[in-house]
């Protein structure tokens, strides 16, 4: 179990609240009221595939979101947490803008605090309070699409965080405040 001080806890909570309130107008404008939204995933660590309609008739589909939560689980611990539906909408929009029929290749979805701490010990590029631990971030590739092009499509939305890791060949997106970085 990873613990944090009271000050760190309040800092995380305040940051979470701010990102929930501030970009609401941008997130709500992300998609028109479409009747169906589907996504396709390939988990590079488990070999699992998923093609699912997660939004239908004006509502998110709980069963489909459960399947998404499962494929985006922490593959090291098996822990499953709910993923932010705004993250799914962001991926859907990126896929539509790129005109891609490919499955998103998942490098990292949800991360347990234990996995995040382990990865922080191995790399300087892992945030202590990562959005991955909140189900609000994903690291992806999109076959047939250069990661530079994928990054640009994510940047064009001006929503959430967009990290570009050209050496590892993936793009990080999250539902926090808009910001960018290179890893």
Describe the structure.
This protein is an alpha+beta fold. It is 36% helix and 23% strand. The protein contains six helices and eight strands. It has helices spanning 6-21, 24-28, 62-71, 85-98, 113-122, 147-157, and strands spanning 36-43, 49-56, 59-60, 104-108, 137-141, 161-165, 170-174, 179-182. An eight-stranded mixed sheet has the order 3-2-1-4-5-7-6-8. Strand 6 (161-165) and strand 7 form a beta hairpin. Helix 4 (85-98) crosses helix 6 (147-157). The radius of gyration is 16 Å and the shape is globular. The model is unreliable at 7-25 (pLDDT under 50).
Q: Which structural class fits the helix and strand makeup? A: alpha+beta
Span between termini: 27 Å
Could you state the order of secondary-structure elements as H and E?
HHEEEHHEHEHEEE
Low-confidence stretches: 7-25
Total strands: the figure is: 8
State the share of residues found in helices, binned by percent. Answer: 25-40%
- In the sheet with the most strands, the strands line up as 3-2-1-4-5-7-6-8
Radius of gyration: 16 Å
Mean pLDDT: 86
Q: Sheet with the most strands?
A: 8 strands, mixed
What share of residues are in beta strands?
15-25%
- Number of helical regions: 6
Shape label: globular
């Amino acid at each position: 179990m990873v613990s944090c001080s009271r000050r760190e806890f309040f800092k995380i909570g305040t940051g979470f609240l701010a990102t929930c309130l501030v970009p609401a107008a941008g997130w709500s404008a992300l998609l028109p009221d479409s009747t169906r939204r589907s996504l396709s995933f390939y988990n590079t660590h488990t070999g699992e595939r998923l093609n699912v309609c997660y939004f239908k008739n004006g509502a998110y589909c709980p069963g489909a979101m459960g399947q998404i939560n499962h494929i985006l689980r922490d593959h090291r611990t098996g822990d499953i947490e709910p993923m932010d539906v705004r993250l799914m909408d962001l991926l859907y929009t990126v896929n539509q803008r790129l005109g891609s029929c490919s499955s998103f290749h998942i490098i990292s979805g949800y991360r347990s605090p234990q996995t995040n701490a382990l990865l922080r010990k191995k790399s300087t590029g892992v945030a202590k309070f990562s959005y991955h631990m909140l189900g609000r971030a994903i690291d992806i590739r999109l076959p047939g699409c250069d990661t530079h092009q994928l990054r640009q499509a994510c940047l064009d939305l001006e929503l959430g965080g967009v990290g570009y890791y050209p050496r590892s060949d993936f793009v990080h997106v999250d539902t926090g405040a808009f910001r960018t970085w290179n890893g």
